[in-house]
Write a structure and sequence with these properties.
By secondary structure, the chain is α/β, with parallel strands linked by helices. Helix content is 32%, strand content 18%. It contains 7 helices and 10 strands. The strands form 3 sheets. It has a 6-stranded mixed sheet, sandwiched between helices. A two-stranded antiparallel ribbon has the order 4-5. The longest helix has 19 residues.
């Protein structure tokens, strides 16, 4: 009986979300609809206990982001440690490259301005509607362009995420672009010899908007 009641409540929640939130049912262009983003469940998941959620954001990718399965085998770690895992895919530009609209430096190179902030929030809402997610343990991790996007999500939706992890990402160069409404945990990981996203900051051609260095990014979050 408890199990059936849990299923009925979750179905009701999903119906309400789809009714009151146009973001979930809206037109997302070339993005996978939020309720169709693949979700990996750990083997022991039953739906009875609130479970952590980790969402991974790929970097700028001239080929399918599927290769991240080899580079970052988070799905195996999710199975081993009992958390739910999802990896949405960003938009494609005119050359077919996958990207996230993170900051003015990276990586919407052709100013398409897709609504990736609201999209990722809709993905979280959809997963919460389908599964028993612990709202205090929702995390983002991203590499390169995905790292930039993690910083943006921390700036604009700190109430949604417990933490973000950026691998070779950065904030906006303009500090006024990041005004989070509350504190959030940020782990900023960056190699000093990174040949693409420089430790000291720089530009990403053909874009001429600068991004700050790793130490500046970390210092701003600490402040």
């Amino acid at each position: 009986r408890r199990r059936r009641m849990h299923v009925h409540m979750r179905t009701l929640l999903l119906t309400l979300l789809l009714t009151v939130s146009p973001a979930l049912a809206g037109d997302w262009g070339d993005l996978t609809p939020p309720d169709e983003v693949p979700v990996h469940l750990p083997p022991e998941y039953t739906g009875e206990d609130p479970t952590p959620l980790l969402i991974f954001l790929h970097g700028w990718a001239p080929i399918s982001p599927i290769w991240y399965d080899v580079l970052v085998p988070i799905q195996d770690d999710a199975s081993d440690h009992g958390y739910i895992f999802a990896k949405p895919i960003g938009s494609t530009d005119i050359f077919g490259d996958y990207f996230w609209n993170a900051t003015d430096a990276c990586c919407d190179m052709f100013d398409a301005n897709p609504p990736h902030v609201s999209y990722l929030l809709a993905v979280v809402q959809s997963i919460q509607a389908h599964y028993n997610i612990d709202p205090r343990r929702i995390h983002l991790i991203g590499q390169s362009n995905g790292g930039f996007m993690c910083h943006r999500m921390a700036c604009e939706a700190p109430e949604t995420f417990a933490s973000v992890v950026s691998l070779s990402g950065a904030l906006w160069n303009d500090p006024s672009m990041c005004q989070p409404s509350e504190p959030i945990h940020v782990l900023n990981i960056h190699g000093t010899l990174d040949p693409i996203i420089f430790w000291l900051g720089g530009y990403l051609p053909p874009n001429l908007n600068p991004y700050p260095g790793a130490e500046t990014t970390a210092a701003r979050w600490a402040a």
